[in-house]
């Protein structure tokens, strides 16, 4: 058994208390020290800075405008050596790829065996990547067939506007929200539709859901 001094210190961040408590108990039972539990992306970032855990286990979806991906980007910008394991019930290919792209060490699904999460945490602590077999296979397939996700085809502004389009906002509403002219939004939205090959609202929304940009 590991001594208290050598235990891996883990911070959990998830907005579902029952899920988080369950994983906290599992990780503690497997010899890890759960030093904190955050319920929002902002709280995760603040607690990471305060506690400086060895590994952060971070959910992707929170019931706020910010996501776990936003929190991870902020934490990694401030602490480049941060070791992050993503935990999510959403497992779209492009979402999985994005977690590794921004610097996560592992992605595990919420229905995984707690032992798999513990293995992911140990790999992250050792600064190694960890792939569940089914995740590795999907990433390999994605690499072979090419990434056609909106995230890979659009720049930051185009992706931002695409997400708002998918949520059902009109060009006028998007222009007001982003403080841009209606003509600018019209031009960008048309370019986005052409690049992605989608024009009807239902298809735009379906594509955004498929690639994890908005919730179903």
From TrEMBL:
UniProt cross-references to Pfam families, sorted A to Z: GerE, Response_reg
Residues modified to 4-aspartylphosphate: 59
UniProtKB keywords: DNA-binding, Phosphoprotein
Organism superkingdom: Bacteria
Record keyword Acyltransferase present: no
Domain Response regulatory: 9-125
Domain HTH luxR-type residue range list: 147-212
Protein name: Response regulator transcription factor
Native source species: Massilia soli
Species lineage: Bacteria, Pseudomonadati, Pseudomonadota, Betaproteobacteria, Burkholderiales
